[in-house]
Amino acid sequence: MSGEDPVTSFLNVDLDIRGNARDVADFLNSLDSSVVVLNGPGQEVSLELAKDHSTLEEAVLGLVEFVSALQPERKDIWDRLDFRRLNVGIQAACKPHAALFAISAKALEMAAALRFEILFTVYAPVKT
Q1: β 35-39/83-91 pair status
Q2: What is the CA radius of gyration of the chain?
Q3: Cα angle at 108 between 107 and 114, to 5 degrees?
Q4: Shortest CA distance to 52 belongs to which of 9, 81, 93?
Q5: What distance in Å separates the CA atoms of residue 90 and residue 76, rounded to the nearest whole number?
Q6: Distance of CA 36 to the CA centre of its chain
Q7: DSSP track, 29-58
Q8: C-alpha to C-alpha distance for 91 and 127, rounded to whole angstroms
């Protein structure tokens, strides 16, 4: 950073899933290099897309696209999961006074059709 004060910013969207440990393991075994496993294995796992997205909208649509493209046997596992959560990460700072991060109605409809929940994780400002 160039000495400027940090600003509140969008970080990423993680895909958090929970289900039967065998189902989760089978789901993870089917993933390709477009997805990174952040933690696991077990009954609860967090994933993210390997490609960075600069906006919340792009990240949500990328995860919707990923899930929509699942093969039928993986889609069956998806349908059995206890939850499928989009975990939106926001890094808080003192500037600006207000920061807006939008998800369009179209993206919300697509996420809802895949039974996503949406959770926001806001990280406290980093002391400098």
Answers
A1: unpaired
A2: 16
A3: 95
A4: 9
A5: 32
A6: 11
A7: HT--TTEEEEE-SSSEEEEEESS--SSHHH
A8: 12
Partnered with residue 9 across adjacent β-strands are 91
CA–CA dist 92, 98 (Å, integer): 10
Tokens representing 21? 């440990």
Structure token pair of residue 33: 């290099």
Name the strands in the sheet holding 83-91, side by side, starting at the edge strand that comes first in the sequence: 35-39, 44-49, 9-18, 83-91, 117-123
Question: pTM for this structure?
Answer: 0.88
Distance in angstroms (rounded) separating the CA atoms of residues 122 and 119: 10
Q: Which amino acid is at 48?
A: E
pLDDT in tens, 16-46: 999 999 999 888 887 878 889 888 777 999 9
77 Cβ neighbours under 8 A, 6+ residues apart:
19, 23, 26, 27
Tokens of 24: 């989760």
Is beta strand 35-39 parallel, antiparallel or unpaired with respect to 117-123?
unpaired
